[in-house]
């Protein structure tokens, strides 16, 4: 991930409004004119901070990734909870955010992930980096759970973390279709009731 450019009020406003607009629609269907109108920012100011819509998209993804990781770190570092409890707390925190946002609205990065076939290589690479970072953080907690005897050491932490990410993404997509939080609740019940049982047989 490239070093973040220091935010100014205008740049931060563009990123905030752009994230909202793209989350509501899509990256490809949301034009710069609409974003600039919503942000009440002249076109010249946009190009002062971003060379293109593509660069703007990468900046959006990097900003969302940093904010997401910052939310996860206190949970991961909470030694009052066991590793498995921390893993569940991560997904429960994300469930709470889905409730606050509403079942019909999707987070920015998963929204963009569905468009990867239409996006440029730099934007695709930024999306992949975001998911790789999330998977790596989950794998860290899985390893701690294995070391603590909460999970079997027979499963590869990276692959298991990758499966958790994929299952979560599927659940959130179904949540939008059903306009209900039930798919996420089913995810939590299955993952922590069956897939990640307290002590697996090796």
Explain this structure.
With 202 residues, this protein is mainly alpha-helical. It has one domain (53-195): Orthogonal Bundle (Tetracycline Repressor, domain 2), CATH 1.10.357. It has nine helices and no strands. Helix 1 (9-24) crosses helix 2 (32-39) and helix 7 (121-147) packs across helix 8. The longest helix has 27 residues, at 121-147. The radius of gyration is 19 Å and the shape is elongated. The model is unreliable at 1-7 (pLDDT under 50).
Chart the SSEs and their pairings.
Elements: H1 9-24, H2 32-39, H3 43-49, H4 53-76, H5 83-101, H6 108-113, H7 121-147, H8 157-178, H9 182-195
Helix pairs in contact: 1-2, 1-4, 4-7, 5-7, 5-9, 7-8, 8-9
Report, as a whole number of angstroms, the end-to-end distance.
Answer: 37 Å
Instruction: Name the CATH class.
Output: Mainly Alpha
Q: What is the CATH topology descriptor?
A: Tetracycline Repressor, domain 2
* Low-pLDDT ranges: 1-7
CATH superfamily: Tetracycline Repressor, domain 2
Number of helices, where a helix is a run of at least 4 consecutive DSSP H or I residues = 9
Task: Give the name of the CATH architecture.
Answer: Orthogonal Bundle
Annotation, overall tally of beta strands: 0
Number of domains: 1
Overall geometric form: elongated
**How much of the polypeptide forms β-strand, as a percent range?**
under 5%
Which sheet architecture does the biggest sheet show? none
- Secondary structure: helix percent: over 70%
Radius of gyration: 19 Å
